[in-house]
Amino acid sequence: xxRLKGVKARGxxxxxxxxxxxxxxxxxxxxxxxxxxxxxxxxxxxxxxxEGEIWLGQHLSSEMDPTQWRRGAVMVPxxxxxxxxxxxxxxxxxLSFAGKPEASNEQLEEALHLASLEKDMEQNAxxxxxxxxxRLALAxxxxxxxxxxxxxxxxxALDEDTADTVMQRLTxxxxxxxxxxxxxxxxxxxxxxxxDFVIEMKNGVPQGNGRxxx
Length: 214
Ligand SMILES: Nc1ncnc2c1ncn2[C@@H]1O[C@H](COP(=O)(O)OP(=O)(O)OP(=O)(O)O)[C@@H](O)[C@H]1O
Hints:
Layout (H helix, E strand, L loop, with lengths): L1 E8 L3 E8 L4 E5 L6 H8 L7 E6 L2 E2 L5 H7 E4 L10 H11 L7 H10 L15 H14 L4 E5 L7 H17 L3 E5 L3 H7 L2 E6 L2 E2 L4 E2 L2
Parallel strand pairs: 3-8, 3-9, 6-7, 7-8
Antiparallel strand pairs: 1-2, 1-4, 4-5, 9-10, 9-11
The structure holds adenosine-5'-triphosphate (ATP).
Adenosine-5'-triphosphate binds next to α1.
């Protein structure tokens, strides 16, 4: 899905050759400041590498329009954004920004279910709690229906049980629909339970170029 070769970025990241597999669940782990978010931002073309090349499938990042790239790989940052309006407005706005047609009620309900946010869609989104807003941002990304989801600590604001429900539903959806998930997590439990491939970052370097989980 993604390949990074000879990549250096921001004086922190140094990646010789890393392949992030398609249609699998990849967890990026490692201590604070080890370069996890920097790596995820490169995968979303939010940053460009100072050196080296990044591919999304057959496409080279330096040769592909970032907007087009981001239709294939949608990122949910750690500090999520909530827009003015209802939950429904917040779910549709990503599609609207991308110039795509609105999603059906059924699609919105499925996205809310996957994110474990069973709320009235007409409710004002700004009244949601921090953890609910985090799940709303995840549901908005699901509604976009990209090939790959890039999630920066998607369960950081959730209690353990809710985090587990979200991960169970999300990973089932990813596997059943042949999608790719790349997510940063500080939870060893989540990485051990859900990942097919783990990238452990240390001082900006992916240890052993990632490893398959048995
Ligand atoms: N825009 C930037 N310019 C320069 N240095 C940056 C920039 N953004 C991040 N860094 C530095 O790069 C290093 C890696 O940051 P990054 O956010 O990728 O770490 P992380 O592993 O995601 O950390 P955390 O788990 O705390 O979120 C840090 O030392 C950080 O200070």
